[in-house]
Batch of 2 targets.
Target 1
Amino acid sequence: MDTSPHLARPQWMSLLAQSDPADLAAAMDAFAPPADLTWLRPAQTGLYMLRGRIGGTGPQFNFGEITVTRCSVQAGDHIGHAWVRGSNTRHAELAALADAMLQDDQQQVPLRLHVIEPLRRALDRRRDEASRRAAASKVEFFTVVRGE
Amino acid sequence: MYVAVKGGEQAIARSLEHLAEARRGDTAVPELTLKQIREQLRLGVARVMQEGSLYDEELASLAIRQAAGDMLEAIFLLRAYRTTLPRFGYTLPLDTSAMRVRRRVSGTFKDIPGGQVLGPTYDYTQRLLDFGATPPAAAVLADAPLASPMPRVLDLLDAEALIERIEPGSDPEPVDLTREPLMFPADRATRLQNLARGDEGFLLGMAYSTQRGYAESHPFAGEIRMGEVDVVVCPEELGFAIEIGSITLTECQMINQFHGGNGLPPQFTRGYGLCMGEGERKAMSMALVDRALRCDELAEPNYAPAQNQEFVLSHSDSVEASGFVQHLKLPHYVDFQAELSLLRTLAAQHAADSDEPLLSAVGGQQS
């Protein structure tokens, strides 16, 4: 069981995929890519079939497809993978590279500090703003009481 | 006899140039950027993605520009493009109960946990053309975000056992219409895949027919929610699930009166609609048609067009429909010659058999 307060690998991979590609590129800019990089699987765009559930809770049905770009890279002893929605190859490459580097104990600490944490905060802020913008259009009903 | 006719290559080449010029329009006007289309025509982008059956805003924007705004042509372009991409796999089922809601309304209950949230809707506009320049609008932010997760309205009725429950059961592998042909009778999962990529206009008309009496339908919009949902995949290389991003979805839970039958007690039954992007009209239409197509399962009289799955599912796809309708423009010279000579023979026989001259017989009804 992961008792650390930090994000585990599935969470950081999710975060890298959910982040704005420009934010990720800016954050990764400070980190020189390792010298011994091997692109095991260059970024490739393909499709996943989205699945829904009947009524939201029932049996599955095939809903329609989505473009996804995947990429795998080896840095030292570590292999980084990425699957990101859309066809932005740079996003997939940076996410795979960050995934490989985050598996390295030496690099993990500065990466968590300068990449993962700022991206997490940016994502939280974007979601909070979207939710509060929607909340501003919440209906307040007024009931007119007639008679006494 | 089959006669091959060649020709027209040069005319076709000139026509394509003419089309390219017409598509671009006045070159003194800057060309639309894909970002402009994506940001300012987002509802059109959503429709092209949904019926093109491919969630990718950039490709849908490109298709809209290339098709000069003809949505059905853009949908066709997107469908054709998807066949060039490899299929990586299937996502885990989208969890719409965890949706980060931006709009959520119910036509059945006023006071619902989480509230009625209007979000960005045209419902309360006056539908008056606004001739002024669109001023940059800044939406106000509330002090607190919405409830997360937003509870489902239908769970309120579920507590009283007055609404049908939809459980995954053995969670069977659904038919995939991109790989298998449509066969009848089609189960509900197959029907929903067909309806999801079906033409909005066709489904809207079908849904409207159920409300006007062509099926036993007494629907209420139990809940409509729109917002962002995480897309989760579990690649073999990893062996664990990860989010790959989020997409905007609109979900409609329609509830319909049901007097009981087929061993089921009287209860509310449900129709389901799901749509990419902000597509409320499509999601509601889909939910109404989904419910109408359940007539056999619920032992309801099956007489209306919207209840006939062969009729609905065979004619819902705009790519197929527009291809078949528009193929009539292609040369049918030989077929038509055959029909013409047959008709001349019949007309001559008719004239020989009857006393009246042919022309006055044909024109007789008009006088």
Target 2
Amino acid sequence: MRKSVILGALTVAGLAAGAAHAATVDDIKARGKLNCGVSTGLVGFAAPDAAGNWAGFDVAVCRAVADAVLSDPGAVEFIPTTGKTRFTALASGEVDMLARNTTWTFSRDNDLKFEFVGVNYYDGQGFMVPKDLGVTSAKELDGATVCIQTGTTTELNLADFFRSNNISYEPVPIETNAEAQQQYLAGACDVYTTDASGLAATRATFENPGDHVLLPEIISKEPLGPLVRHGDNEWGDIVRWVLNAMITAEELGVTSANVDELSGGTNNPEVNRLLGTEGNLGEMIGLDAEWARRAIKSQGNYGEVFEKNIGENTPIGLARGLNAQWTDGGLIYSPPFR
Amino acid sequence: MADTSFVRTEMLPEQSPPLTSVGVLGWLRANLFSNLWNTILTVISLAFIGYLLAGLIPWVFQSVWVADSLNECREVMNATWGDTHGHACWAVIRERWLQLTFGFYPSELYWRPILAFVLLFGALAPVLFPWAPRWLLYVTAAYPFLFPWLMWGGTIWAPLMVAAGLAVGYFAHKFVEPILGGLAGMIIAVLAVIVWWLFLVGPLSGVLASIIPIGLEPVESRNFGGFMLSIMIGVVAIGVSLPIGIVLALGRQSDLLIVKAICVGFIEFIRGVPLITLLFVASTLLNIFMPPGTNFDIILRVMIMVTLFAAAYMAEVIRGGLAALPKGQYEGADSLGLDYWQSQRLIIMPQALKISIPGIVSTFIGIFKDTTLVSIIGLLDPLGLSNAIRADAAWNGIYWELFAFIAFLFFIFCFGMSRYSMYLERRLRTDHR
Amino acid sequence: MTTLTDPPKESFRLSMLIYDTRYRSLTIQVVAMMGFMLLAAWLINNTLTNLATLGKPIDFGFFRDPASYDINQRLLDYTSRDTHLRASFIGLLNTLVVAVLGCITATVVGVLVGVLRLSSNWLVARIMTVYVEMFRNVPVLLWIVLVMAILIESLPAPRAFRGEEPTATMNFFDTVAVTNRGVYIPEPLFSRSLGDISLFGASSMRFNISLDLIAILVVLGVCIFAVRKVTARANRIQEATGDRPTTWYINLGILVLPMAALLVALGFHLGYPALKGFNFQGGTHLRNSLIALWLALSLYTAAFIAEIVRGGILAISKGQTEAAGALGLRPNRIMSLVVLPQALRVIIPPLISNYLNLTKNSSLAIAVGYMDITGTLGGITMNQTGRELECVLLLMLVYLSISLLISAVMNWYNNRVKLVER
């Protein structure tokens, strides 16, 4: 890694030289910053505040990884990406990981050569309609005008759904959620469709949320999760297990409040292994013993992150639903720390 | 015989013109109600203006300035006017105007972009205003090196070493020319500069920085945003594209067939495709074109592509300037026995560039406006930031206020520049005709 | 005294490549060519290496795969099972539609505003100045977004037309519905249609041309030809005898009667939009995205055209007008015979570049979700297939061809205007 020198007059950048495909974690350590691709702005998941600090559900994953690797939750460069630029940014090595509610699909995993390290939100595509339209099922939407956000799998699911049910519709593709929301509220479309979490988040910010209903159909599976490039398994493992650590922490009752107390040693060996007081899990993953403890301490466990950013006490008000721990009947399930 | 003819010997007192052709009334008659058709037009126009203002004025002035979120704004509106429509919530601008201006540039370092902006006027003054003092020319000469240093920070040695490259080239030329002759001297000088910039600047400035560490806190270019980003892309693109544009314009005018073909091909290609496709190249392809392992960050990539874009337009502007010069200037230069480069440097270019300045200014306005396109590839220029701000739960659903603010600022900038360009055109015209 | 003789013939030396002006230009060209080739080779080599590392060799095969997305505005038949190539083609047609509509409107508005800026009415001239400055100095992307927002917010939704006491009604005797989803206008229908002819079989470029349209165009062409013949004959008689026969009723008859007969034969009638279900059905639907883009692009470009027209008119010296007046020409004839032909020479070249700009700016359609070629090929297709290189290159190629085509046509026209004028 050469010391980067910027010759702005020639617009020659400091080259982050070295192989982009090997030893990402060494690059990150040398750089002192994690480059994390997030969305350009999605309520509850990633948005900058007035001081330019990013916050949100996806952002917390980035910060947790940065804290585990670099011992500093602030050592993250957030790189806003659009639906179009996100995969190139990751493939070209511009970002080290992508935490930008991206759906895990076969072709993205194999054709685009990315590695999805897990799922941090189970979502599905839903429909929102105004209550006074009197629609109770998506199958009654024959001839309706549908607002969709482009650049996602949404438009494909929608085309498939209407085609397989043999009903017609008028798609209105829209670039950003904010625009879609405006068109929907003005009645320029009858239905707004995107991931159910996005719908709920959008509805929560309406002047009169009660005037709109979510239809019961969920027409697709959208497992959203962080992803990294193919070909660097060590780095993939780190991101995967930071996510798993947050999930396991919730399962075991480790929170940001009690993590210091618990790392003094407990009777539960798995908690001890997670927090680095027993065994050498940190060493196996190429980090120090306290990696998970730091991440949990600064960002909280999965449940805390959820509640803080998109949970029922926030304006977005999402219920845990599928994203409850498996012990509570949800799908959030981490392999054991052993 | 008495002379009955009458000759008046003194002037009659001047009579005041009829009331209907002077003063306010006369002006109104002449300009607004001169005939039926004009009267109808005037009435329609007045109705139109009235309609617009009736909607706009309450919205702009019956507005909320202090609130922490859109909901709070709505509550205040409900409490004050009893309904939430037709009132602006300027509180979002109050909270975010710094971000819309500077992006994520560290707030304690705001003096740097501001200083760079002020110095820009100092640097441009000798070119733009004839009455500017001559010492400002030194600012002009130093500015290309000062500007990146102020914006990106880092050690001062890097821009100094880059500047030293020019001295290296000059000395190389001076020493080689007497030995090998003019053209070889030129080639070797250019080669020396390239070698210096590519291979020696980095290590040398690194060494010097470790010996005498003078520098500013480095700022990553992805922290640039808002209007600062728009202005920067515009300034860098125009500044860098000027020399490229000159070369391309000369190439296009040249008699050398292959050189001409390459230049024409480049110019027509760039001018034939929309900027957005070039930005797609910047965001998705430029890294693929570079050697493996190279990694420019996105803002530099965008600057490169916008510079290429500007260069093609600049070449056409300068070509216009070259074409506008009377043929006698070229012939005069030839008859003095000047060679090609001498005549370009001493006779042609100074005049051609001077004629082209209004064109350059309008190219700059165009590029500056086009920088809004970078929001489409996810950069946080004012438009991109407006999306990011609306993604904040507190401001979700706000719309017109942000756009009004952005449009207003763009208007101020561009209108100012275009007025200046008109003034310049008038000034240049008196010089030349 | 020595006599001057030809210098002895020098044998060719290597240094002559640099110092001899006969060879120098050749040397420079060869060096430039080599430099260019090296640069190109370097770029291509880098690209191939990088693509190989990414495991994505250049391959246009994905164009034959189903696109799997729907396009709302399609001039030709298209479903989500059609190929990516077909989707791109539909997008290309949409680009052309908005570009052509935009150029026409921009010219009309621009000329109008340019003339009105010179109006003697102070208020009108000022309003036009404000319009021109407002549009020229604010980015076109912002205008597109703003116009879209204004359309959406200020026009009634279809549901406002519904119910016992609708808050909105249709215009023009219930034939046109202006909603915030777009404008529904009556569509021409033929009950005894001649059918379509299909070009290019079942390929992605398949193209149906309505025979009705062809019939109408043919009849129109023949009529116009006949009218020109009649006018030419009238001119001949006028030149020979000084009397001009009255021809307007003949011309009107030639234009109207065959067309009316044809339309009756084809069973022409209008299909009116009517509110059914969620939306208006029937009629032609001009979508909001099209209108917003069209309006914003034409108003933006018109501001530039207005300045060009104003400059062109001002560039004609007052002496021309006065001389024409001295010849006894009436004011409108002065404009059409003396001022405009000369002004056109000044106006047309910058006008061409404004048409080009408008066409290129139409690529901002994605901001309002208009599915032009940037939205299909450079948008969803690129996004779903991950083939950035192929898509972006093709996209550039398409725009480049359109631009070159427009400049070629307009330059041809420009040359014609020049010839007529000189």
